[in-house]
Amino acid sequence: MTAEVRVLSATGMLGSGFLESSLERGVALAPHVIAADAGSTDGGPAYLGSGTPFFSREATARDLRLMLRARARLGVPMIVGSCGFGGGDAGVDWTRDIVLAIAREEGMRFRLALIRSEQDRDYLKRRLREGRILPLHPAPPLDEGVIERSAHIVGAMGHEPIVAALEAGAEVVLAGRATDTSLFAAVPLMRGAGAGPAWHAAKTLECGTAAVVQRKRPDCLFAWVREDHFDVAPCDPEMRCTPQSVASHTLYENADPFLVTEPSGVIDTTEAAYEALDARSVRVRGSRFRPSGQVTIKLEGAELAGYQSVIVAGVREPYILRQLDAWLGGMQARFAERAREAFGFGPGPGGYDLRIRVYGRDGVMGRLEPRAGELGHEVCLLITVTAARQETARAVAKSFAHFALHYPIPEWGGLISGLAFPFTPAEMDRGPVYRFTLHHVVRPDDPLEMFRTEMLEV
User: Fold this and answer.
1) Same structural domain, 229 and 358
2) 301 beta partners
3) Which residues of the chain have pLDDT under 70?
4) Pick from 347, 216, 401, 196: nearest CA to 285
5) Domain enclosing residue 332, as ranges
6) Is residue 392 situated within a structural domain?
7) Are residues 102 and 162 in the same domain?
8) pLDDT by residue (tens digit) across 54-97?
9) H-type alpha helices, 114-208
10) pLDDT at residue 374, rounded to an integer
11) What is the pLDDT of residue 375?
12) Do the beta carbons of residue 251 and residue 257 sit within 8 Å?
């Protein structure tokens, strides 16, 4: 067993950047692995559904180049997970192409593992019929039709496929959708660190400097993982970790402050103790990992919901603000009549979906807004029109913008212009829009069976 496993988290998300000086400080600490997460569901379903990346090629290549150079100097593995943000096959291929271009330019040679997490539809249908796909709360209804019409479906791998690739000789691993923690737990577990400290350290490292006090920018975080504890510190000397900042990170993207569910078990921080080693670093003891005995792989899917046009408008007229809901409700009802006259269809299937968010009142939280009754002197309306074709969405949006602009109120006897448009034309095309289709887990026979690994000599 290795007495200590050192892990360098390059950044909270590949492409978001980090200081070169921080990376150099991390390299000087001789890590056994460099890793970075590259994706999430945080940005919504568009990236998985469309297969397009979140960050630009330039920003992603900059981070990868520096990480690959550091890996070559150290001779240690480099791991990137959830490539391309959505983690589908297109994201893995996109990241692979960037890595291959950098390797050619830099004259690098290494063994590259590509682990794909996009799922076979026939496999998922079979598992569904077997009762081995279970919903997570809240989950949309699932049947074989949902599986078939989803543009892309991925499974969030645990550490096992990554460990298998490293044991097969991979020096650089580009993985599809993966749990953030699995990227950072793989090497410590391989090298014999305690499971509790390894997984809890991984949870702390996953978002880079999100675990520091008042993070000023994405940057590198470093952990020393041992049998019964781990230490963690930021690589930028101007940042600092405290017991509170590290402990609070178990709440990030997690419903329970003490229990974090992974494919193979649960990270239990109930008895974890956090101790300040100095002004910038923290030691954590008492973390445990409880194996579940049954691997569960979370499924994420997205389907095309239609094509969308958007209108942004401001309202400052006090008479309108006093009756805003009635005004907007009447406007949409009357416009449905106008749409049937002009287009031969109204709202609903085969027609259009029109939604209005009121920013300045409840645009962010909707029905959950506790101060929705408070209204300032102006509001912003974000109006979306979604239809099966972009041309239809645009046509409806154009008509609605003009219709809404002059929609009357009882207090006004003549023509009214109640909206202020900041842009011309008022409507803007967003193109295809997506919605999530799955929030479920699969119970496979083996933690590797849902993932495909390809080895390349670079």
Assistant:
1) no
2) 153, 438
3) 1-2
4) 196
5) 304-436
6) yes
7) yes
8) 999 999 999 999 999 999 999 999 999 999 999 999 999 999 99
9) 121-129, 144-149, 160-167, 180-190, 195-205
10) 87
11) 87
12) yes
Say if 126 falls within a structural domain.
no
Determine the pLDDT at residue 450: 97
**What pLDDT, on a 0 to 100 scale, did the predictor assign at position 199?**
97
Residue 420's pLDDT is 96
Q: Is the residue at 148 inside a domain?
A: no
Q: Are 176 and 89 in contact (CB under 8 A)?
A: yes
Please give the Cα distance from 396 to 381 (Å, whole number). Answer: 17
Residues 6+ apart with CB under 8 A from 183: 35, 36, 37, 79, 80, 81, 162, 175, 202, 206
Element (H, E) at 61: helix 57-74
Cα–Cα distance, 140 to 24 (Å, whole number): 46
Q: Please indicate, yes or no, whether residues 33 and 171 belong to a single structural domain of this protein.
A: yes
Specify the pLDDT at position 431: 97
pLDDT at residue 3 in the model:
79
* Predicted pLDDT at 2: 57
Which H helix or E strand runs over 382? strand 379-387
DSSP bridge pairs for 81: 37
Q: Residue 366 falls within a domain, yes or no?
A: yes
Measuring CA to CA, how many Å separate 443 from each of 113, 131, 263, 361? 25, 9, 10, 44
Q: Are residues 248 and 324 in the same domain?
A: no
Q: Which CATH number is 371's domain given? A: 3.30.70
Domain count, the chain: 2
Predicted local confidence at residue 191, as pLDDT: 95
Q: How far is 336 from 172, CA to CA, in rounded Å?
A: 56
Give the number of C-alpha atoms closer than 13 A to the C-alpha of residue 190, restricted to the C-beta side. 21
Both 97 and 216 in one domain: the answer is yes
Token representation of residue 330:
């009447």
Task: List strands edge to edge, sheet with 265-268.
Answer: 259-262, 265-268, 288-291
The structure's pTM equals: 0.93
pLDDT score, position 252:
83
Contact between residue 387 and residue 306 where contact means Cβ atoms under 8 Å apart? yes
Distance CA 407, CA 403 (A): 6
CA-based nearest residue to 262, from 332, 319, 189: 189
